[in-house]
């Protein structure tokens, strides 16, 4: 029950972070948004160090650094995806991809899927097709570029979670600190190399910082959940985060979805639920 509640909390925090990060990326280049979000996340994790402790063993350093590289890619790809939109379609696609890879890793490590999981995985693939094949106005249909970005973002998120899960369970928040330090360094380096392409727009500092803080909280809750439960279950429960993003996108941005996409989103919810039952 503790792992379930932690994973649900992580899901909610990720959903809110994605919405705010996507809005921030609409106001300025995505790298400018990440330049604010990543250091804000690092500041939160440094504040948690005295409270939760940290053990910087070689394994914690290695897996933390790997998660940081994946996190930097996830930040950029996800915020760019959500900036292109529509959020209420692309966010569930990203979530399903981010759930599938940890499930595969969990199975390879000896975890088992029951009948519900065997039904949930193919249903998830059907849901991806439905939510990405919307009809009607162009504003509700994702472009090929946006869909590819969503798939890449999902893969990067999955790798980040997998690497965090591999870190020693007694390392405290060390993997988070190392990971965020690496992702911040990668982001700032990329921004420095591409500064001429970033445009004159200033980042939305409040939105970007809030997204970073919520993302840090989501990572922490996921790490705690994964240490007390199976990766296959925790990852798919965490993958429910589009619920928060879609709800905010509908209420704040008035994004519309068509009937076929509603079916796809419903199938995605059922698929994630079936996977969680395992």
Structure description:
The protein has 278 residues and is an all-alpha fold. It has helices at residues 2-27, 30-52, 58-84, 87-108, 115-132, 144-166, 174-193, 205-228, 231-238, 242-253, 259-277. Helix 4 runs antiparallel to helix 10.
Q: What is shown here, in short?
A:
With 278 residues, the chain is an all-alpha fold. The chain is built from eleven helices and no strands. It is 80% helix and 0% strand.
Counted by DSSP, the helix tally is 11
User: Alpha-carbon distance between the termini?
Assistant: 14 Å
> Radius of gyration, Cα only, in angstroms?
18 Å
Order of helices and strands: HHHHHHHHHHH
**Sheet having the most strands:** none
Query: What characteristic shape results from the CA principal axes?
Result: globular
Please name the defining characteristics of this protein.
single chain; 278 residues; 80% helix
Which helices and strands appear, and what pairs or packs with what?
Blueprint: H1 2-27, H2 30-52, H3 58-84, H4 87-108, H5 115-132, H6 144-166, H7 174-193, H8 205-228, H9 231-238, H10 242-253, H11 259-277
């Amino acid at each position: 029950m503790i792992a379930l509640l932690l994973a649900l909390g992580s899901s909610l925090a990720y959903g809110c972070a994605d919405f705010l990060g996507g809005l921030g990326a609409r106001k300025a280049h995505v790298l400018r948004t990440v330049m604010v979000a990543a250091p804000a996340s690092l500041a939160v994790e440094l504040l948690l160090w005295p409270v939760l402790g940290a053990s910087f063993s070689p394994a914690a350093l290695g897996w933390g650094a790997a998660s940081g590289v994946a996190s930097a890619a996830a930040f950029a790809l996800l915020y760019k995806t959500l900036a292109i939109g529509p959020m209420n379609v692309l966010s569930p696609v990203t979530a399903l991809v981010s759930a599938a890879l940890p499930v595969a890793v969990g199975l390879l490590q000896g975890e088992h899927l029951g009948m519900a999981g065997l039904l949930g995985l193919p249903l998830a693939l059907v849901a991806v097709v439905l939510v990405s094949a919307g009809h009607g106005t162009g504003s509700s249909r994702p472009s090929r570029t946006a869909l590819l970005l969503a798939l890449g973002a999902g893969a990067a998120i999955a790798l980040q979670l997998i690497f965090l899960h591999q870190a020693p369970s007694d390392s405290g928040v060390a993997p988070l600190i190392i990971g965020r330090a690496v992702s911040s360094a990668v982001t700032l380096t990329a921004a420095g190399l591409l500064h001429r392409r970033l445009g004159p727009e200033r980042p939305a500092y409040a939105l970007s910082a809030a997204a970073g803080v919520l993302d840090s909280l989501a990572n922490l809750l996921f790490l705690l959940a994964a240490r007390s439960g199976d990766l296959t279950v925790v990852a798919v429960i965490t993958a429910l985060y589009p619920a928060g993003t879609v709800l905010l996108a509908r209420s704040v941005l008035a994004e519309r979805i068509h009937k076929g996409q509603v079916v796809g989103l419903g199938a995605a919810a059922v698929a994630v639920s079936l996977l969680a039952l395992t």
